[in-house]
Amino acid sequence: MARRLERLSPDALGIVMAARPQLAASTTSALGAFDELVTNATDIELDRQRRARRKPSGSLKNAVRDVEDMYDRAKEEGENVWTEAKPRHLVGLYAKLHESVYGVLPIEVDGVAFAGAVSAARTMLDREFEGDVLKMLGFMRWVWSRERWREADRRRRGGEGRDYRVGWRLQFASRALFTDWRVALMREHRGRHDRRAR
Fold first, then answer.
1. Residue (of 169, 170, 85, 87) closest to 122 by Cα position
2. N or C: less crowded end of the chain, CB within 10 Å?
């Protein structure tokens, strides 16, 4: 009987259940137990994911720690400390900036994706900044200064536009932010030039 019920459409199953009240009661209780089992399993999995995502693992964790050390050294020794930064440090810096603006580390950069983010940071550093880490840091500073202001504005407006954030692909792989930065530099240069002409 159970195999025949599996092949029935939901409408036909309702007719069979109405015709057989005892079968309907036992199937309903089995479905309720199944729903409860799925709900419990989902809750357990969500709890496991929350615990696992609280702290970054391995590579990202080390990169973030190195960035924090470099930041402390830069306070004492000056900004030239950052010339030692490697692409993995740029990803660690991205993660710290993300956390400072949005309140959470970008866990999508953790694990296997960390290598992809480092590769994208290396490509951007080489292609767009000719290997000059300080110039790339200037770009990142601009991106996150602007994003800090925009996030504060989103909060003031009650969450409007909150689905936007700077992900690692936008930071390192997309050329959209890089172009925005170049436009901002050009506008700033023109503004200075226009003020001098007056």
1. 87
2. C
